[in-house]
Design a protein that fits this description.
globular, 5 helices, 592 residues
Length: 592
């Protein structure tokens, strides 16, 4: 099925943005489209000629630290963002990227130490002449796309409590959907819809707590096909622990206009010491399907009940219409931090596939797929790797994957030409020692010491870039990488898949075989997402480089203690031999 056939777009969707998304010459949303496929129909650059790519132009952002996300291309203008202080540039594509306007918010630098894993931001959003920026300090700003003038702003959280933002936002119809981060500070997280014209709050749904505050219906909201029942979250926490329960929403959002559902994942429960929060800790670590207009949840699926490893569930939900067991199905595919690739029916929430997408994953043997089993849909945990069973102040060793997951936020791509998903992964394991911690608002609420290292008995590196069949739950091909692949992938109609590496390479590989077709080393490590567009009859590839993020936090923040950065500093210490800080946009094209 072609990408064009994925949706029949109802006229009620955000028409301006919908038309931009349908035009492959533009790149109107961070995830490529509402379905989060990161697929482009452009094919001027293809498997036969991609080896001739060269740098067309570059732009320095003027900011160090980690550059996640990517630029938007609306008409003849490219919009580029930076990590904190979250500067926005509008660049004129008709004039060698001349700066049309620059917006630099004034933010309190005290927000920096409350940001968990670098000062990243995953990018801007666009809707009806407005650029949306969700700042680190949780201020959501609406800017006039032509002038950069502020139309309105609204504060979504309180950094003094540890609430911050690293994510992009999702414009849907007349609303913009916004998340929050702060799980490492005992924040109780939520998803909020604001009116795109006024900034007025329309609805807010929490990840845990009373049914009315989560926007769930005990009888109509289902989990694995059954009603969740009254107080499903409250019953899964001890006392009032849900009030500092985490479940943050700093990942990506997808939207299906046919079902009118927004899909996203919630993150880890607070604290990282599982002994301190008995129960399933619902609804952290959960796939959510919410009505875009009301916020009411249609279904939920908790992937890692009572998380013991910090396997946030925030990664993107990719929506496709494919054949499954010989019948057409509306699918949702999600590569979770916990190392399992999930395929669900996005209408009903039925679990169809749950398989390991890295052979190193060892904390669970499998996900129970027997519908008649009392543990249906749950991972079967291996006692040796259970930080709960091993207990406080015990170092549980050799757990795979590490806390940053088999994949973190770096988004995968899907090609309707191959029916394969292209997944940037972390091939990393950890030792994890939980300890007792007390809650103080605005202070770290972690309660675990971690160390990270490459998956043992393997190729010695910390990453793989894989092609995945979501209907069978199988790896089709896998490319070894020395470091985690922390860049978002791009698949194109030219049979090429692009991704970036932590050392700074932009790579192009054949979508069918994985054969490397091109690579170029940019000035700094790449944790941004590859983007493509067409301008003046030419196809371009654009990538932000600027090492950082959780994997690059040692370099980004100048940390040397191997246990710092929640365990990542030691694991990625060798990265400093390959790259250095820098914020740059590099744009590639074929020679004239």
């Amino acid at each position: 099925m072609s990408a064009a056939a994925v949706y029949a777009w109802p006229a009620s969707a955000n028409d301006g943005l919908t038309n931009i998304i349908k035009d492959p010459k533009q790149w109107g949303i961070q995830t490529g489209d509402y379905a989060n496929t990161r697929y482009s129909k452009l094919d001027q650059i293809n498997a036969g000629n991609v080896g001739k790519l060269q740098v067309a132009w570059t732009f320095s952002t003027g900011v160090l630290r980690g550059h996640e996300g990517g630029p938007l291309i609306i008409g003849d203008v490219m919009y580029v963002h930076t990590p904190f202080p979250n500067i926005v540039y509008a660049l004129d594509l008709n004039n060698d990227g001349r700066i049309l306007w620059k917006y630099e918010p004034k933010q309190d630098p005290n927000v920096i130490p409350v940001m968990c894993c670098d000062t990243v931001n995953r990018g801007l959003a666009y809707s009806d002449g407005t650029i949306f920026l969700h700042q680190a300090d949780t201020t959501l700003v609406a800017l006039d796309a032509k002038t950069g003038q502020k139309k309105w702003s609204v504060v979504n959280g309180d950094p003094k409590k540890g609430e911050t933002n690293t994510a992009t936002v999702l414009p849907v119809k007349d609303k913009v959907i916004v998340g929050i981060s702060g799980g490492e500070f005992g924040v109780r997280c939520h998803v909020t819809a604001y009116d795109t014209k006024t900034g007025k709050q329309v609805w807010r749904g929490y990840s845990m707590g009373p049914d009315s505050e989560m926007l769930v219906d005990p009888q109509k909201t289902t989990a694995l096909g059954k009603p969740i029942g009254a107080d499903s979250s409250l019953k899964s926490w001890e006392g009032d622990q849900w009030k500092i329960g985490g479940g943050c929403t700093w990942g990506w959002y997808s939207y299906d206009p046919e079902t009118n559902l927004v899909y996203y994942g919630s993150g880890n429960p607070s604290t990282w010491n599982p002994k301190q929060r008995p129960g399933d800790n619902k609804w952290s670590m959960t796939v959510w399907a919410r009505d875009a207009d009301t916020g009411m949840a249609k279904w939920v699926y908790q992937m890692t009940p009572h998380d013991e490893w910090d396997y946030d569930g925030v990664n993107e939900m990719i929506l496709t219409d494919q054949q499954f067991n010989g019948a057409p199905r509306k699918l949702l595919t999600h590569f979770d931090r916990n190392g399992f690739g999930y395929t669900l029916d996005r209408v009903s929430g039925e679990l169809l596939v749950a398989e390991k997408y890295d052979p190193a994953v060892n904390w669970a043997t499998k996900v129970d797929m027997d519908k008649n089993s009392p543990t249906y849909g749950r991972p079967l945990v291996v006692a040796k790797y259970s930080t709960e069973q091993n207990g406080e102040d015990v170092n549980s060793k050799g757990i795979c994957p590490a806390a940053l997951g088999t994949k973190d936020q770096q988004p995968a791509a899907f090609s309707p030409k191959t029916n394969l998903f292209y997944v940037p992964t972390n091939h990393v394991c950890m030792d994890y020692e939980p300890f007792r911690v007390s809650y103080t608002a605005g202070q770290p609420y972690v309660g675990a010491t971690l160390s990270m290292f490459p998956a043992p008995n393997s190729h010695g590196g910390m990453g793989n870039f894989i092609a995945w069949d979501n209907t069978k739950g199988k790896i089709v091909w896998s490319l070894k990488e020395p470091f985690s692949v922390w860049s978002g992938a791009l698949a194109t109609a030219g049979d090429v898949v692009f991704y970036g590496t932590l050392e700074g390479y932009l790579k192009a590989v054949d979508s069918k075989t994985g054969k490397e077709l091109y690579k170029f080393k940019t000035p700094s490590g790449i944790i941004g997402n590859v983007t493509t567009y067409e301008h003046g009859g030419k196809q371009y590839i654009a990538i932000l480089s600027g090492v950082g993020g959780w994997a690059g936090i040692g370099l980004a923040a100048g940390l040397t203690d191997p246990n710092a950065g929640l365990g990542a500093v030691g694991g990625y210490a060798a990265l400093s031999n390959y790259t250095n800080l820098g914020g740059q946009l590099t744009v590639f094209a074929l020679p004239n």
